[in-house]
Amino acid sequence: MLSIVKEPYLQWPTLHSMTIMWETSEPSDSRVEILAAERIHSGYQGNYKKPEQLLCEVYSEDYCTIHQLTVTGLEPGTIYFYKVGSKHGQGEIESGPHPMKTAVRKGEPFSFAVTSETGGYSGFDSSNGQINRRIFKQMQAFRPDLALFVGDLVNDGTNYDDWDTYFFSPGKHLLTNTPFYSCLGNHERNASLYYDLFAYAPPKNYYSFDYGDAHFICLDSTDFIKPEHYPRSSGGMMPGNEQYDFLIRDLQSSFAKWKIVFFHYPPYVSGGYQVEDLRQLCPLLEQYGVDLVFNSHTIVYERSHPIRDGVVDMDNGIVYIVAGGAGAMPEWLLPRREWHTSQSLAVPHFVQVVVTSTSLEVRAIDDEGRLFDMMRIKKDFYGKRTFL
Ligand SMILES: [Fe+2]
After folding, report:
1. Same domain, yes or no, for 213 and 311?
2. Segments forming the whole domain that contains residue 124
3. Are 320 and 310 in contact (CB under 8 A)?
4. Which of 142, 161, 187, 350 allows an S-S link to 152, with CB 3.0 to 4.6 Å?
5. How far is the CA of 264 from the centre of ligand 1 (A)?
């Protein structure tokens, strides 16, 4: 019988488009309907009418199980509702309406949430995935415009069931209405399922995109640090390597107010699983004005001081944040901090970042919604940063 295996989820939001994916139990066709979001007001609370006005529809008659359709012609920073549907000769399914929001223009504030390890920790903890469910629920409560997952979404990326167990099922309430990006962690094992399930720009294991005043770059640190050499570099962090050359070109071509890079292995963390060889990337990130780097792998929260040239630099440094997220293992932190550590704590968490054209606010929030760390970067007209 035809059924929905993965509820619809949102990929690659732009000013005028959204890509919508879902999975069905059997090969079937694909349809997305975009509906107008009409606000109504009662008292002090805004809400929406039941969405009924059909604005556009995209259809593919090709039968598949992992469905992917891109809707174009949308307005920037606008909330819509969408429905998906699939049918074959013996049945049909429908999901929605779910809300979605297109990317905002430059100059418009937005917020994004960062976490990781929904599978890397929950895959072997004793709470049967309850931690990642609590983190997903808190992320949803803070209503981010988009989400970043810094790898280890699953325990074993080659295991089909893992993707539902650790990611799509616990995350479905967030993922139906929040576009998200992810990078490869070691637990994904560079599995073909990662490439099948996500609609990132080719080659998918590294890519970049703009959202509001921020430019985001996703890197594949599991390619720079191959499993057979871990934790040593495989020698690719230099010109001539495809991913490294992409990084140079991409940094050179972006003039966004904020540059944010995310990849799995942490170059700076005062705990086990620090991968120091990735510091070979830092001079390039510093040269082109990267503001924030998000990592994971060590299942803790840690925020570095601003760092440049391998030392604390409160004027021009990059802040490295380990958002080890949906799990926490105190024994993974060293008994004492390292010189680069500004704040660290082994608690389940996500990181909320609020972006305006002149400020980045970083807030670390635990699985009960409590704020436990905060930092702000202000940037003036000339690009000079102040860390608050
Ligand atoms: Fe990892």
Report:
1. yes
2. 110-387
3. no
4. 187
5. 7
269 in Cβ contact with 302 (< 8 Å): yes
Shared domain check, 185 and 61? no
Mark which of 45, 78, 101 sits at the end of a domain: 101
125 C-alpha to center of ligand 1: Å? Answer: 15
Q: From ligand 1's centre to the CA of 320, what distance in Å?
A: 16
Q: Where residue 362 falls among pLDDT bands split at 50, 70, 90?
A: very high
- The CATH number assigned to the domain holding 83 equals 2.60.40.10
Quote the ligand 1 centre to 241 CA distance (angstroms): 23
Q: Are residues 298 and 383 in the same domain?
A: yes
Ligand 1 centroid – CA 335 distance (Å): 21
DSSP string across 140-190:
HHT--SEEEE-S--SS-TT-HHHIIIIIITTTHHHHTTS-EEE---GGGTT
Does the structure show a pLDDT above 90 at 123?
no
User: Are both 88 and 115 inside the same structural domain?
Assistant: no
